[in-house]
Design a protein that fits this description.
By secondary structure, the chain is α/β, with parallel strands linked by helices. It has 31 helices and 26 strands. The protein starts with 13 loop residues before the first strand and ends with a helix. The C terminus is likely disordered. Bound molecules: adenosine-5'-triphosphate (ATP).
């Protein structure tokens, strides 16, 4: 299709394609939009199939240039939609190949002569076909209705077309159109979810384009200015989020219309307050225009960014493409690491430079990243580094130092240094691990490493900028880099470094790597804000669990990567994390472009495991609490239920009807607990347990399942924090006082809520049901073949102490890694466990030991208690199931029947589903409810 203007009317012509049997079948003609005009111009444009209804051919196309826009939209209609009486099937962006030349390429009189014209159907070249002849070869024509009275006519809106049937102008048939588009979209997405697109010859590109076109068509419908105006004029109507209107909405087939160009101010137009009200606008048109303008900008910017990501995917190396090991690497890369290296190098040549390496834990991400550093260093050394590498998505501060040829200039500010080095940020427990892995994997002279850690660290940016690798910790970064809360809300923080003494901020790094990047999953915390302020050409997030809770986790990483415009929170929420199919699809594109993830159970194209690892099995030990334990459990259950009910009542008063809504997460949790949603009462209002109160009650229930002695100790704030919540001082105090259990030294009984229990029950020397089961398993392992070692995980150090006591009694040697063990001691303990006969058992706390530990010396892992966050458990499992493991691995989990542990198990599954959907790039049906369920279940 081209921009062909009618010489008489000056309007852009439609393109009609003959679909009926006859001489004009398959031929195309430009025709004037005006019914009365006889202009017809044949063209050799081939017949094309509909983007939405693949089986049908396009019979009408029209170009529209939205006011004030440079990008045309090509509207199209196929025979099916025509037969259904629809105006258009949809529209796609269209680029004018000859923007300056739109001559009328033929004189109307000549053109008219090319076709026999009927006086009654002056503008329709197809009317001359024999209506009685059946369409023999084109299946779709069988379904086509006769078009005897059909003609095109201008609508009141200059760019609108309506069809007149038997003399009646039909109103917009948008509802049907939307439904149709939605159905098509669902089908395509169904296909996308069902097939392995990597296996398709074009890697699903066509399918994705079709989906994009459908999305665009739906967006165009949703962004009708008339609709927006109506919404804004009616105070009753909610200001519906941009692109997720329901099928019941009134529809207008109008491409989004921007306001006049003089109003285009602000980056994304998201700051409505900065926009001017257009003069002469009608009653509520100021707000409507602003909103329309804002929506239009957001829509356009989002579409462009998605298009760009799509385009960049074309150059993405295939699954089997490999990069060679860089010179100087002592440990040969495994095949999947070579493939990852090819992908990493590709990403460093894309916008934004960098991405997310999210391979399963233990697949050797550290060595892979080291290989990237070394490869780039070698390239740079041999002057092979691609000088034309685009740096437009650099840190905005760094951009200031970029010359037109994309060459990094020395910074103007002499206190800022450009480095060819890499800054690695990791948890404190891993700094030595990184250093060791580099020393182990790279010839000594190749990379100069500096540990930016400890009180004696060098604070000279100039010196630091000369190292190839600088390793530091999240906590140090958060401490050194001043932040304000506001920065957490501003994407791609483009903040001045003036007056900041933090040396790491005074360096423009070649790359920044965040190891265990889920540490920055909350964009508002100091650490996240600090890492976003770092300046670098390439940014990498390395994590085996990029999605732990919800899509906010992903947003944090996108923000760190400065993946504009999705690093702007309001845009992320409205365009991606909005629960809509379209949002899911955008997320999917972002994921496919920016994230590489392989799992341990993944097979390669030949059906072999991607990484050869021994077998891993999971054993779920279903336990029944003893009668005594059950009795105590029930006292706590009753207590927690009543606390929870009071909590619900309190929250009922806050929303409109939150307590009664079936969708209310509180109601759902109430159901989980088997209690109905309570009615509001004055008495209940007087009892106001805090969120943390409910949380502590739940925690107590879980402790009951492990060992009753845990109930004796007051809850540590740290233990509550491990639930994923940062407590205020007030809340901490509240948690502590609420967790008090009445234990009298003098009395042989313990009284809980009026029920008395023997004091021995709470003694740590007593074998609880879980401890008994654990010891039985350990005994079986000891008696089993070969020398097998075990790792035992609990989130409570108090539980580890109880277990340690029993291990000692049982004659088993053990070591413990918890938060109190410093990084150096950790390394020594790990070394001993992996390389020596003893200890036989390693006790690790879920939070302290969950990351970075390589415990391949053990092949049994016991998860003593259940955490609501399955990622934490997965992390723990991957301590033993990783590259380097030689023995078959067994993961043991314990669940006490009829307790809260069973519910946690169910919720864990839901969470895992969310992560799977997002990471597989099929995030269409991502729901936001899962986290809410979990949060509330634990009173967060
Ligand atoms: N190519 C290789 N050859 C031999 N051993 C390797 C290779 N790559 C990695 N390893 C070893 O595999 C183990 C796991 O690697 P690494 O710690 O990098 O995994 P990871 O993916 O970073 O895990 P996590 O996400 O848990 O940090 C390490 O002991 C590492 O030395």
């Amino acid at each position: 299709m081209e921009v062909v203007k009618c010489p008489e009317h000056g309007t852009v012509c439609f393109l009609k394609t003959g679909v009926r049997d006859g001489p004009n079948k398959g031929k195309s003609f430009y025709v004037c939009r005006s019914n009365a005009c006889r202009f017809v111009l044949p063209t050799d444009t081939p017949v094309s199939h509909c983007l939405l209804h693949e089986e049908f051919v396009v019979e009408l196309q029209g170009l529209f240039l939205p006011q004030g826009k440079k990008e045309w939209r090509l509207f199209f209609r196929c025979t099916r939609s025509k037969a259904e009486g629809k105006h258009w099937c949809g529209n796609v962006p269209w680029q004018d190949p000859n923007p300056k030349e739109h001559p009328v390429t033929s004189k109307p009189s000549q053109a008219s002569k090319l076709l026999p014209q009927s006086p009654s159907q002056p503008r329709n070249p197809f009317k001359m076909l024999d209506n009685n002849r059946k369409a023999a070869s084109w299946k779709q024509l069988e379904e086509q209705k006769p078009e005897s009275n059909c003609r095109m006519e201008k609508d009141t809106s200059p760019d609108l077309v309506t069809e007149r049937h038997s003399g009646d102008i039909r109103d917009s048939d948008g509802t049907a159109q939307r439904a149709n588009l939605t159905t098509q979209l669902r089908q395509k997405k169904g296909t996308l979810a069902a097939v392995n697109i990597q296996a398709l010859p074009d890697k699903g590109e066509k399918l994705l384009k079709q989906i994009q076109a459908l999305e665009d068509a739906l967006s165009a419908l949703a962004l009708s200015p008339e609709q927006e105006t109506k919404e804004k004029c009616s105070p009753q109507e909610p200001q519906l989020s941009n692109f997720t209107k329901t099928a019941a909405d009134p529809l207008h087939l109008v491409p989004p219309q921007p306001p006049p160009s003089h109003e285009l101010v602000g980056s994304l137009g998201l700051k409505a307050g900065r926009q001017r009200t257009p003069e002469g606008s009608s009653q509520c048109s100021g707000a409507a225009y602003k909103n329309q303008h804002r929506l239009h900008n957001v829509w356009q910017i989002t579409s462009e960014a998605i298009d760009e990501l799509h385009r960049s995917l074309k150059s993405c190396p295939g699954e089997t493409a490999v990069a060679e090991d860089p010179a100087g690497l002592k440990i040969p890369l495994l095949l999947h690491q070579k493939q990852a290296l090819a992908w990493l190098l590709w990403r460093e040549s894309q916008k934004p430079q960098g991405g997310i390496l999210a391979d399963d834990m233990g697949l050797g991400k550290t060595l892979t990243m080291i290989a990237l550093i070394l490869t780039q260093k070698n390239r740079e050394r041999s002057k092979e580094k691609d000088q034309s590498m685009p740096v437009t998505w650099l840190s905005k501060d760094a951009e200031q130092h970029t010359a037109p040829g994309n060459v990094l200039l020395p910074p103007q500010d002499s206190s800022i240094f450009t480095s060819n080095g890499t800054l690695i940020v990791c948890p404190a427990s891993l700094i030595h691990h990184w250093k060791k892995e580099i020393e182990k994997g790279v010839n000594s002279s190749r990379l100069r490493i500096y540990l930016y850690h400890g009180p004696n660290r060098s604070r000279q940016a100039k010196v630091l900028s000369t190292y190839d690798v600088v390793i530091t910790t999240y906590s140090l970064l958060a401490k050194e880099i001043p932040t304000t809360k506001q920065e957490g809300e501003v994407p791609g923080a483009n903040l001045s470094v003036e007056g900041i003494s933090a040396p790491l901020l005074r360096i423009v790094w070649a790359r920044v790597i965040l190891d265990e990047a889920h540490n920055v999953k909350n964009p508002q915390v100091q650490t996240s804000i600090a890492v976003c302020r770092l300046q670098a050409q390439a940014r990498w997030a390395v994590t085996g669990t990029p999605i732990q809770n919800n899509l906010l986790d992903m947003y944090s990483l996108i923000k760190f990567l400065r993946c504009c415009p999705f690093d702007e929170f309001s845009l992320w929420k409205s365009q991606v994390d909005n629960g809509s199919l379209k949002g899911g699809e955008r997320l999917s594109i972002l994921t496919r472009s920016l994230l590489l993830r392989r799992t341990k159970d993944q097979l390669d194209s030949t059906g072999k495991p991607l990484v050869p690892l021994p077998q891993r099995t999971f054993q779920l030990h279903r336990l029944k609490l003893s009668e005594d334990e059950q009795a105590v459990y029930h006292v706590f259950l009753a207590r927690s239920r009543s606390a929870f009910q009071s909590y619900l009542k309190r929250h009922e008063g806050r929303g409109s009807h939150p307590g009664r809504s079936p969708d209310n997460p509180f109601s759902r949790v109430a159901q989980e607990f088997g209690s109905s949603v309570p009615q509001r009462s004055a008495a209940a209002d007087s009892q106001r347990p805090s969120t943390v109160h409910v949380l502590s009650q739940l925690l107590r229930l879980r402790q009951c399942c492990c060992h009753l002695s845990l109930l004796k100790s007051a809850l540590e704030p740290g233990e509550l924090e491990s639930e994923g919540v940062a407590l205020s001082l007030e809340e901490q105090l509240s948690a502590l006082s609420l967790s008090r259990v009445d234990v009298s030294e003098l009395s042989p009984t313990v009284c809980l809520n009026g029920s008395c229990f023997k004091v021995e029950l709470f003694d740590n020397t007593r074998r609880s049901t879980k401890v008994s089961s654990l010891l039985a398993e350990l005994e079986a392992i000891r008696k089993g073949p070969g020398s097998q070692k075990s790792v035992i995980v609990s989130q409570w150090t108090s539980m580890l102490q109880v277990v340690a006591l029993h291990l000692k009694k049982h004659g088993l040697t053990y070591a413990t890694i918890d938060g109190s063990v410093n990084p150096k001691q950790r390394m020594d303990l790990v070394e001993a466990f992996n390389c020596s006969r003893e200890p036989q058992v390693m006790l690790i706390s879920l939070l302290a030991g969950g990351v970075g530990l390589n415990l391949t010396g053990g092949n049994h892992l016991f998860l003593l208690d259940m955490h609501w966050n399955p990622s934490l458990e997965d992390q723990a499992c991957d301590r033993i199931y990783r590259v380097g493991q030689k023995k078959d691995v067994v993961v043991h989990r314990f669940v006490c029947e009829g307790t809260v542990e069973e519910k946690i198990l169910q919720l864990q599954e839901k969470k895992k589903d969310l992560a799977k959907q997002v990471l597989s790039g099929s995030g269409g049906s991502v729901t936001k409810l899962t986290l809410a369920d979990l949060k509330v279940l634990f009173g967060i």
